[in-house]
Amino acid sequence: MAEFKIDVCRYEELIIDHESYFDDLMILSDGSIAPWPRKEEHSLSEADLQMLLDLKPKIIIIGTGWHQKLTVTNELRDSLKAKYQIDLIACHTSSAVGLLNQRFGDGIVAAFHLSC
Asked: Would you say residue 1 lies in a domain?
């Protein structure tokens, strides 16, 4: 398993391995980074998570932004659990970064909304 850590987390920026990222992104199970486009900026849908779902993770961690504007519904959580047996954890982006840094590996992936 690749070693992975987000070094710095601040409003509109993550620093990973000395490289700054300013746009919303996903962390895949191997530690690689991918852009995270969504249909609607502040509303999360299953389609927005398709790349992560294809990896068959056990847990998806979502950083909902600095003012937690990204909405994650209970219906989406329940649907992912029923259809894919995936737990969805959504919290403030800085908390989500801390959680990923503690638990990376073993079927955990993440996506981060870096602004509001």
From this structure: no
Rounded distance between C-alpha atoms, residue 112 and residue 94, angstroms: 9
CATH number at residue 58: 3.40.1230.10
Q: Which structure tokens are listed for 84? A: 């894919």
pLDDT in tens, 50-94: 999 999 999 999 999 999 999 999 999 999 999 999 999 999 999
Is 90 part of a structural domain of the chain? yes
Which residues form the domain of 93?
A: 6-112
pLDDT tens digits, one per residue of 96-110: 999 999 999 889 999
Asked whether the predicted pLDDT for residue 2 surpasses 90, the reply is: no
The burial class, CB within 10 Å (0-12 / 13-18 / 19+), for 19 is exposed
